[in-house]
Specification:
By secondary structure, the chain is α/β, with parallel strands linked by helices. It has helices spanning 14-24, 84-96, 120-128, 130-140, 148-156; strands at 6-10, 29-35, 48-55, 58-64, 76-81, 100-101, 106-108, 114-119. It is elongated, with a radius of gyration of 18 Å. 31% of the residues are buried.
């Protein structure tokens, strides 16, 4: 068992969410599904209580805890992408599976979990600081899904 695991609260669909993530992202898998031995807040004995899974190698635990808590943007997965095709693939998988677009490379999956689909060219340009970072940041602020060509153009000035 890893020393640190991210625990994500779902109303009832932790297993479905985990299987979706495993189907979309590399180095991701559902590793265990545990059913409740007794009734619990949000469920009954025999229903899925927790799901162990990884997302891009990061260990997670999905907890079916009922409706008491909702996902917020205070937590997100940031997925670094190499090019526009990879950016499109992840963005389209999340948004196209009942998710919602947001701004600046952010989107939410249908379970309310936030994702930042971030091309490396954006991160690298921001690290440069100065005028390059300012131009790239201004360009990013106008986008939903990140447009790699537009970011590259903004970086060049």
């Amino acid at each position: 068992m890893p020393k640190n695991t991210i625990c994500l609260w779902y109303a009832r669909e932790a297993e479905e969410a985990a299987r979706f993530y495993a189907s979309v992202f590399p180095d991701s898998a559902v590793t265990a599904v545990h059913k409740a031995p007794t009734d619990f807040p949000g469920g009954k004995a025999g229903q899925v209580l927790t799901v162990e899974f990884t997302v891009c190698g990061i260990p997670c635990l999905g907890l079916n805890g009922g409706d008491a808590f909702q996902q917020t943007e205070a937590f997100s997965f940031q997925i670094a992408t190499e090019d526009q095709a990879e950016t499109d693939r992840y963005w389209d998988a999340i948004v196209g599976n009942g998710g919602k677009e947001s701004a600046c490379g952010w989107c939410k999956d249908r379970w309310g979990l936030s994702w930042q689909i971030t091309p490396r060219v954006l991160s690298e340009a921001m690290k440069q600081g100065g005028a390059v970072a300012e131009r790239v940041f201004q360009a990013m602020m106008t986008m939903g899904k990140i447009d790699v060509a537009a970011i590259e153009a903004a970086a060049k000035g």
